[in-house]
Amino acid sequence: MEHGRLQSANPNPEAADLKSGILPTGAWLRAVALAGALLAGQVAASDQSPPCEVGSYRLDNGDTLDIGPGAAGQLRWRATDGSTGALASEDDGTWTSTLGWTERPDGHRVSFDDCGRGGIRFDRTAGQRVPLQQIDTRFQGSGVTLAGRLTLPPGNDPVPLVVLVHGAERDSALERYSLQREFAGAGIGVFAYDKRGTGASGGRYTQDYLTLAIDAIHAMREARRLAGARAGRVGYQGGSQGGWVAPLAARIEPVDFVIVSFGLAVSPLEEDREAIAFDMQRGGFGPEAAAGAMAIADATARVIESGFIEGYAQLESVKAKYGDEPWYPSVRGNFTWYLLGNDEATVRKEAPHLVYGIPAHYDPMPVLETLDVPQLWALGGQDRDAPPGETLRRLAALQRDGRPIVTALFPGADHGMYEFETGPDGERVSTRQPEGYFRVMADFILGGPLEPGYGTAELSSHP
């Protein structure tokens, strides 16, 4: 799941914001209060056909293994400890694995009996498919019909229910979100849905947070309707851009919990500046380079704030001034890389279509300062796209004010909550998710006390 960033062929193709305008605190909260008037409706049915091996498996050693779709012709396995690999089929009917996304063999071998219906073997450990209960649906969002799916653990007992809120990605959540099976395998009900303009959902793709929050509320209502008596405590898990949307949805219509994964408590423009500052820090550059990089950030912000209409002369000026500096190639940010890498004509033509609806100056603090819902914020200490420094400072202040917030900082994780290795070209390749990341989320949803430690996570909670 990704933040609001420009989508393109960049190694991190995430979309950026582009529309402007911050509401004063009072006006913003009035808008939130009035948003409830936009809510209504439901309907039914969706058709997704994943590979027959896709599912949740309980191994004989007690571990749970998720098998999901991978790249073309491949599958992907995920374990609850965060380890993962891509699976490619062999002539003998088995599947061989590669480490994370590295394409290096990791020695694991998987086989399925009757396409998983008769069980699985992961290396030497056998297992059986967990009989998850799935209900596909179509329901009414804010003026559009959305496609969703409720996934429940086996049995009839009440279970916690979590709605997965999108990042900025345009992929189908119903096809790609492994958490819908992973959480269900841990005894949690899950509702996933395709964001408007993606997958099987209707409407125009947007990154307008209020519209998306209202869609999320409709999704929650549909999830509760379908779960019926099985719905226990309910809440949201929002990754990346969903970290702006999920708290807003909870502020409009309260729930029992909110999880923000690799999201932020700053605006998209502040995010871009923090990311550029982190670029300079990681590159080992000094104050002079940092000042030049911030001048570039000022120039790109002006283009964005104008809706890609103005600011090109200033942008060309800083590109000419700093283009030969040794630190210049390291300036990445979230959307600045796109403006630096394309000419004015291309940006004017493409950018308005690449993003739609995000307020670049959106301030999440008026929502967070008045949100009494228990929250878990899981953040990555090496997140290049959403550096957590200022967000952690703001969350700590909210904790001191008594807000029910827990933070879990995984120091070695990048955006998406992935650990990585760095190649000779400086590019990162994801290897796995951190030990403890899934467990802390599952424990928080289940509502019991959290453990003292989750892998390398640095935990902090309100006094």
TrEMBL record:
Transmembrane segment boundaries: none
InterPro entries: AB_hydrolase_Est10, AB_hydrolase_fold, Hydrolase_4
Protein name (Swiss-Prot/TrEMBL): Alpha/beta hydrolase
Keyword Hydrolase listed: yes
Start and end residues of each Serine aminopeptidase S33 domain: 158-251
Gene3D superfamilies hit by this protein: alpha/beta hydrolase (3.40.50.1820)
MF-aspect GO terms: carboxylic ester hydrolase activity
Keyword annotations from UniProtKB, A to Z: Hydrolase
Stored Pfam families: Hydrolase_4
Keyword Transferase included in the entry's annotation: no
